[in-house]
Write a structure and sequence with these properties.
Chain B: Belongs to the binding-protein-dependent transport system permease family. Chain B: This is Sugar ABC transporter, permease protein, putative. Chain B: Keywords: Cell membrane, Membrane, Transmembrane, Transmembrane helix, Transport. The complex is a heterodimer. Helices cover about 70% and strands about 0% of the residues of chain A. By secondary structure, chain A is an all-alpha fold. Chain A has 2 domains: about 1-60, no CATH class; about 80-305, MetI-like (MetI-like fold), CATH 1.10.3720. In chain A, helix 9 runs antiparallel to helix 12. Chain B is mainly α. Chain B is built from 12 helices and 2 strands; from the N terminus they run H-E-E-H-H-H-H-H-H-H-H-H-H-H. Chain B is globular and about 75 Å long. Classes of the chains: A mainly alpha, B mainly alpha. The interface between A and B is large, with 103 and 99 residues.
């Protein structure tokens, strides 16, 4: 290793430059195009000579910008609302997944109990289920059975117990989407957190026990602070999926709860694509994950390798 | 006595929320889907109102050439994507496994594509593949080469390229991590014995990395069956059915054609396929892990 390290051939750096260019290039291209007028985009591919404009972003963010209220009706793209929906859904589902997943991972690592292997195995199996497979049942259940007015299993039970209004379904609500995201992400979070919890020294926990701490105190005060890197990694992955997901959100949301990916796809499939605005919307959706990547790439890589290299 | 009770209940209290949510939102729906696949079921019906038709949906699908076509497209896509990404990713890792300055910055830049929403990735590539304003045809024009109909007759290849762009870094990062955790002594010993670079890779590095590589390939394989948004945005399954992967077909059957029963049967076929692939890979993993362990033991024996 040491011998080769001294003379890095020029070709080696050429490869690295090419790789960086390839992986970042498309993103930069989108960024550049999001500041172009459609006329400039349509006139030719790679030109860098153009007058930058923020008009695309203004169109995209039309419904939350500082203009007069009555102007809202003319907004062709209600990006602001979708952005807030995306934020609510991604943040709440990430938080819930982390808390619930961390508790489960802790139980799986630290306790021997009946049904442990079954839970552990099924968690692994569930990871391979594609969202497209969940689409059919979730679509059916959320629209027809998980409602307060139908005689479905859970809906009926809730109505009988609490006497609901009688026409509310999970579909079209934030909670409906959050519920499926939490369930979908749990297996992954449980899986990667296990490999972090295993490394927490048992003696620390036992010491706390001797001092009279209950199991939940031990968990929250000793274990959680020690696995912060793992939690960060899990949080980023969960957020990423909840923030980026399209298929289930599109099946479960209505006009008021749709997220940004749905907005983008809807505008793409129209006959005439407004490239500039679409690119601006895409950029706005891509920015949070990009920021995460730049600040937490170490955690992301740890999380990835915890999944494959250690597991 | 009370303390003993509390201790026995503790693990269940920790597990309960996760199990409850997965039961309501994963297990129950999956069972519900299997049940629904035996019915002629449209989205406005509860499952109880849908007519029971036995195996009809499965039999219809079995004889449906369009279904066969999407099955073939899905398998082709998964095969090429996993093979090419493994080759390129592992190759790059072997090439770049050196201590150079700024490696952590490079890695950050490489993982960027993975973090971007599939919908946005699809949008970027749809733009770059655009027949008239697209980047690629722009380049070809400048080089004086004929334009390529990227999302037309070569659509499958084009979506495979886009997936390679997004996910090769995943394999690259994992292989690099595996390479850097290899026992130094083994590599040292091989070098002293005069093994060429190629021999070291072929006889030492690759066999020792194998368990990680297989898990990586397995993860990618499973994910390859989940890809949907990128293709939806880029080609919407077209032209014809040439890029209509199974996931896309399921979602279209359920939401556009409103045949939930058929879509459920299709989902079950996909699940069975995935189950076999996963089990096969697991068996292969076991076998390779044993081999790597033997190799490791041999190396350590030689050392002492």
């Amino acid at each position: 290793m040491a011998a080769r390290q001294e003379r890095q051939p020029v070709g080696f750096y050429a490869i690295i430059v090419a790789l960086v260019f390839m992986s970042v290039g498309p993103v930069l291209l989108m960024l550049v195009n999001s500041f172009k007028l459609d006329v400039d985009i349509l006139s030719g591919g790679t030109g860098l000579l153009f007058l930058p404009t923020i008009q695309n972003y203004e169109t995209a963010l039309c419904d939350i910008l500082w203009y007069e209220i009555d102007h809202l009706d003319f907004c062709s793209l209600k990006f602001g609302g979708a952005f807030i929906n995306s934020l609510i859904i991604a943040l709440i589902s990430t938080l819930l997944t982390l808390i619930i997943g961390c508790m489960a991972a802790y139980a799986l690592v630290r306790f021997r109990f009946m049904g442990r292997d079954t839970v552990s195995m099924s968690t692994l199996m569930v990871r391979m289920v594609p969202p497209a497979v969940l689409l059919v049942p979730v679509f059916g259940l959320w629209n027809n059975e998980f409602c307060l007015d139908r005689d479905g299993l859970i809906g009926g039970m809730i109505r009988d117990t609490f006497g609901g209004r009688g026409d509310v379904c999970l579909a079209g609500t934030h909670s409906g989407i959050i519920l499926i995201y939490v369930a979908m992400n749990l297996p992954f979070v449980i899986w990667i957190l296990q490999s972090f919890i295993v490394q927490v020294p048992r003696s620390l926990e036992e010491a706390a026990r001797v001092d009279g701490a209950g199991p939940f105190q031990v968990f929250f005060k000793i274990v959680l602070p020690l696995i912060k890197p793992g939690l960060a990694a899990a949080a980023i992955f969960t957020f990423r999926i909840a923030w980026n997901e399209y298929l289930l959100a599109s099946a479960l949301s209505d006009r008021d709860t749709r997220t940004v990916p749905i907005l983008i796809v809807n505008n793409m499939s129209e006959f005439n694509v407004e490239w500039g605005v679409i690119m601006a919307t895409g950029m706005l959706l891509a920015i949070p994950p990009i920021i995460f990547t730049l600040f937490a790439s170490r955690q992301i890589i740890t999380g990835m390798t915890a999944g494959a290299v250690k597991g | 006595m009370r303390i003993a009770m509390a201790n026995r209940l503790t693990p269940y209290m920790f597990m309960a929320p996760a199990v409850l949510i997965m039961a309501i939102a994963l297990m129950y729906p999956l069972g519900y889907m299997i049940w629904g696949s035996f019915r002629e079921w449209n989205p406005s019906q509860t499952i109880g109102e849908a007519e029971f038709v036995g195996l009809k949906n499965y039999i219809t699908l079995w004889g449906d050439p369009n279904f066969h076509e999407s099955l073939v497209v899905t398998l082709k896509f998964a095969f090429f994507v996993v093979t090419l990404e493994m080759l390129i990713g592992v190759g790059l890792a072997l090439l770049l496994d050196r201590n150079i300055r700024g490696m952590s910055i490079l890695r950050t830049l490489f993982i960027l594509p993975m973090m971007i929403a599939p919908v946005v990735v699809g949008l970027m590539w749809r733009y770059m593949y655009h027949p008239t304003i697209g980047t690629f045809n722009g380049f070809l024009d400048k080089l004086g080469l004929p334009r390529v109909d990227w999302l037309g007759e070569h659509a499958l290849m084009s979506i495979i390229i886009a997936d390679i762009w997004q996910w090769t870094p995943f394999i690259f990062i994992l292989s690099l991590a595996a390479l850097q955790s290899l026992p130094r002594s083994a590599l040292e010993a091989a070098r002293i014995d005069g093994a060429t670079g190629w021999q070291q890779i072929w006889h030492i590095k690759l066999p020792l990395m194998m368990p990680v590589l297989i898990v990586t390939a397995l993860l990618r394989l499973i994910d390859a069956f989940k890809v949907l948004e990128v293709i939806l945005v880029m080609t919407e399954g077209g032209p014809g059915l040439s890029t209509e992967i199974l996931a896309l077909r399921i979602s279209r059957t359920a939401t556009e054609f409103r045949e939930l029963g058929v879509a459920a049967a299709m989902s079950n076929y996909l699940l069975i396929l995935l189950l076999f692939l996963t089990l096969g890979m697991f068996a292969f993993t076991r076998w390779q892990e044993a081999r790597a362990a033997r190799l490791n033991a041999m190396i350590q024996e030689e050392d002492s």
